[in-house]
Write a structure and sequence with these properties.
single chain; 5 strands; 9 helices
Amino acid sequence: MLEKIKDKLNDVIAIADGCPEKYQVKCFEILLNALLTAEGVVPVTSATVTKERVSGKPSPEFFTRHGIGEEEWQRVINFDGEAYSIIVSNLKEKSVSKKQVRLALLLGVKGFLETGVPTVEKSQLVELCKQHAAYDSPNFSTHMRKQKNLFLPKGKDWALTKPGESKAAEVIKELAQ
């Protein structure tokens, strides 16, 4: 069954890519849900994901998938029973651009944990970069554009790619040491 879905997923992606940019994500979600339903799989909705996150339990699937133990991730990301926050103070990088990328990766994980979608909101990233002395206003967007393999532009925000999720996991492991 998964092979069938995998084959059809490329068609879903191609159709969504053909939509106007502001509708691509929604188009993809609708088509993917239709595909999953047609194949007899109950799709996970954002409402389902949100309900799990509100229940007060951390979402370990990201960490489990990437082999990150609870002790490790809790040195980098805090869960207070309601929300996640990035608590690491030393990003173990000197350059502003590398600090910014690391913070964006961590924000993507935070977004995934809270909503099920690895979104990096520009406003949150700017604020976090300012807190970590990593905000370079003239080059801020350029730093993100140079990381096409890690981040997909989503309007003024970004989403982590699969390689971005893997890189974020590597960063969490490194920062936890």
